[in-house]
């Protein structure tokens, strides 16, 4: 009885040692992959940071208004964020590869999902970046045109243009990621539709005189006398 | 050789019939039927009176007029030895009109004139505005003679203008070009000017014509000539007529002036960002350039649009201006109308900071130019206020002070440009 017990124990111990013997090299392999991955990810981060500095990426980010947004949220510069993002994506990839080497059942599927998701994540980020660029450009153009045309509330026009483009871009990015795409689309359509309806009502009710004046000026030429009276105060700049 | 695509086959055929010429006068038009007849008659009289032996042609590139402008120009042709009302023509004077593709644009019209001059191997080419109702036959002589006699490359006009006319020229274009390129040309953005055939061929070969057509091409030609140290002179022409419908779009005017100068500075910084010797531009028959006839100016509107612009465009100005200049502008905008004074020094620094912002493209370059418009209104307000009761001499003296401020502040621009500040 005692001998049987000892034999079982020895066999179990042998199995454990055998398993450990099989597992430890894999674990070591995983550790090597993770550490090597960290080094590679760090090098990539440094490379990206230098590349973005050389290409004056932060200037571009300033133009898009992204820097101001990040500053408001107490976040580092966009080039720093992008290089950190590259670091984490690369290292996470290596960690998952390492876990895959362990041969734990079910992990392979998650690893392959992760790598399948990366192109979509990248596309969504590109959409967001260029969307912010477009939002900044068009809202600034609207602001300048409104100020130079002496229109009321140029900042409001600027804000509306910017918000609409950002909403549109965010909904596109979410659709690319496949996250609540339908909800985002409906939310965008509702916001856009209600805003346009609101503006139409406001312009129709509140600005009918302005609209009348604009349409008259646009389509029915004023008499030369009225025109010259309007020009009387205008300087000829050239 | 001109780019063959610029000129239509029919137009080339007409030009070939004309043959080589000594003088080509270009009159670019677009619905100028009310004034072009008078202008072309004056040009014709000028050619026949002062250059009766020269082979001459009037070329009219038209932007698509629908008011008979082209017919009025064509009617100015004179056959060999025919008799005009008061002068006898010794040679055929052709007057050719053509419509160029791309709609009305002064750059396209100018390019057509240059291409025609190149094809006809014109020795001198003059350009006159179809709106210059005060144009006299002698203007043609004043423009063309310095090229024939003195071998000048470019002749620019000097006009007598109402003291508040051409505020953008007097407060920005003249002081800026004078300070940057060290050449005191009073009208760098001319309506009437002349250039030699070789200068015309040189202008035609530049790549400006492939860029945005129509905006500031005349100014660009002036900048090109003075920056490359060509032989430039000025001729006093007399009173410049106020156009019946003066262009009131200040944004487009700013694009054509400040935008053109900034772009030219950017394209060839070595031509100004060093220690150039001054370039003389002698003026033939120059007199006072300021007249005092009354002109109503709405100063209040200028002031209001300045203060409105400074308040509303704060996020844009933060990207363009230095903190000191921005603070100073905000302080100005808070002042009441009667104490408001946008000094020449501050204006010069403002323009230079805009120029550096354009160079560094801190925001879209067209946006930089557009953002200068409300600030110019503030400067225009101060100029009008300072010179409200001024004599012609005092106005001249105040313009000179603006020029000197731009010259004094030029090292500041060079520091900004090179990133030393």
Description:
The complex is a heterodimer of chains A (238) and B (421). Chain A has 238 residues and is mostly helical. Chain A has two domains: 81 residues, no CATH class; 103 residues, Helix Hairpins (Orthogonal Bundle), CATH 1.10.287. Chain A is built from nine helices and no strands. In chain A, helix 1 packs antiparallel against helix 4, helix 5 runs antiparallel to helix 6 and helix 7 crosses helix 8. Helix content of chain B is 50%, strand content 11%. Chain B is built from 16 helices and nine strands. In chain B, strand 1, helix 2 and strand 2 form a beta-alpha-beta unit. Chain B starts with 8 loop residues before the first helix and ends with a helix. The model of chain B has no long low-confidence stretch (mean pLDDT 89). At the A-B interface, helix 2 and helix 5 of A face helix 6, helix 9, helix 10, helix 11 and helix 14 of B.
Number of domain units of chain B:
2
Taken as a percent bin, the fraction of beta residues of chain A is under 5%
Shape of chain A: elongated
Strand element count of chain B: 9
Report the portion of residues of chain B in β strands: 5-15%
- Unreliable spans of chain B: none
Largest sheet of chain A: none
User: What's the CATH H-level homologous superfamily of the largest domain in chain B?
Assistant: Spore Coat Polysaccharide Biosynthesis Protein SpsA, Chain A
Mean pLDDT of chain A: 80
Listing every helix as H and every strand as E from the N terminus to the C terminus, the arrangement of chain A reads: HHHHHHHHH
By oligomeric state, this entry counts as heterodimer
The CATH topology of the largest domain in chain A is: Helix Hairpins
Specify the helix fraction band of chain B.
Answer: 40-55%
Q: Briefly, what CATH class of the largest domain in chain B? A: Alpha Beta
CATH architectural label of the largest domain in chain B: Alpha-Beta Complex
Number of helical segments with 4 or more residues of chain B:
16
CATH architecture of the largest domain in chain A: Orthogonal Bundle
């Amino acid at each position: 009885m005692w001998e049987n017990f000892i034999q079982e124990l020895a066999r179990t111990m042998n199995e454990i040692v055998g398993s450990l013997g099989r597992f430890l090299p894999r674990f070591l392999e995983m550790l090597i992959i993770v550490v090597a991955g960290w080094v590679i990810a760090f090098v990539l981060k440094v490379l990206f940071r230098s590349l973005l500095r050389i290409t004056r990426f932060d200037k571009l980010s300033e133009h898009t208004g992204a820097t101001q947004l990040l500053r408001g949220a107490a976040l580092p510069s966009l080039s720093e964020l992008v290089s950190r993002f590259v670091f984490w994506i690369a290292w996470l990839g290596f960690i998952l590869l390492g876990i895959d080497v362990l041969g734990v059942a079910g992990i392979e599927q998650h690893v392959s999902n992760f790598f399948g998701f990366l192109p979509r994540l990248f596309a969504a980020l590109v959409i967001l970046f260029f969307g912010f660029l477009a939002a900044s450009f068009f809202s600034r153009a609207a602001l300048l045109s409104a100020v130079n045309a002496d229109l009321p509330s140029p900042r409001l026009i600027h804000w509306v243009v910017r918000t609409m483009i950002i909403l549109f871009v965010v909904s596109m990015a979410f659709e690319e990621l496949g996250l609540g795409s339908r909800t985002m689309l409906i939310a965008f359509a509702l916001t856009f539709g209600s805003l346009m309806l609101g503006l139409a009502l406001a312009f129709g009710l509140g600005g009918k005189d302005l609209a009348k004046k604009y349409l008259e000026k646009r389509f029915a030429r004023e008499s030369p006398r009225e025109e010259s009276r309007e020009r009387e105060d205008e300087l000829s700049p050239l | 050789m001109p780019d063959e695509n610029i000129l239509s086959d029919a137009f080339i055929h007409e030009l070939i019939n004309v043959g080589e010429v000594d003088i080509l006068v270009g009159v670019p038009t677009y619905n100028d039927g009310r004034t072009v007849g008078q202008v072309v008659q004056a040009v014709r009289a000028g050619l026949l009176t002062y250059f009766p032996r020269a082979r001459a042609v009037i070329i009219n590139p038209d932007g698509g007029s629908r008011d008979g402008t082209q017919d009025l120009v064509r009617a100015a042709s004179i056959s060999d030895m025919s008799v005009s009302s008061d002068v006898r023509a010794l040679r055929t004077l052709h007057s050719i009109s053509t419509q160029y593709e791309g709609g009305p644009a002064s750059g396209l019209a100018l390019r057509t004139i240059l291409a025609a001059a190149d094809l006809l191997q014109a020795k001198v080419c003059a350009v006159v505005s179809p709106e210059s109702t005060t144009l006299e036959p002698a203007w043609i002589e004043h423009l063309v003679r310095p090229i024939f006699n003195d071998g000048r490359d470019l002749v620019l006009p000097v006009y007598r203008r109402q003291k508040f006319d051409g505020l953008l020229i007097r407060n920005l274009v003249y002081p800026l070009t004078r300070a940057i390129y060290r050449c005191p040309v009073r009208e760098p953005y001319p309506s009437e000017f002349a250039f030699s055939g070789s200068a015309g061929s040189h202008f035609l070969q530049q790549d400006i014509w492939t860029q945005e057509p129509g905006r500031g091409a005349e100014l660009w030609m002036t900048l090109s000539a003075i920056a490359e140290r060509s032989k430039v002179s000025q001729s006093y022409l007399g009173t410049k007529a106020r156009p019946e419908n003066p262009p009131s779009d200040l944004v487009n005017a700013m694009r054509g002036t400040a935008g053109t100068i900034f772009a030219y500075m950017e394209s060839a910084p070595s031509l100004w960002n060093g220690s150039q010797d001054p370039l003389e531009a002698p003026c033939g028959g120059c007199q006072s350039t300021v007249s005092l006839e009354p002109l109503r100016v709405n100063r209040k509107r200028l002031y209001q649009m300045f203060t409105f612009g400074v308040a509303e465009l704060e996020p844009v100005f933060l990207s363009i201006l230095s903190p000191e200049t921005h603070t100073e502008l905000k302080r100005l905008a808070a002042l009441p109308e009667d104490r408001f004074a946008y000094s020449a020094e501050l204006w010069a620094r403002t323009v230079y900071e805009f120029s550096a912002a354009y160079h560094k493209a801190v925001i879209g370059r067209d946006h930089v130019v557009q953002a200068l418009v409300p600030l110019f209104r503030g400067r225009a307000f101060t100029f009008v206020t300072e010179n409200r009761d001024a004599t012609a001499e005092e106005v001249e003296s105040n313009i000179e002070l603006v020029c000197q401020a731009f010259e004094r502040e030029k090292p500041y621009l060079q520091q900004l440009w090179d990133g030393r500040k």
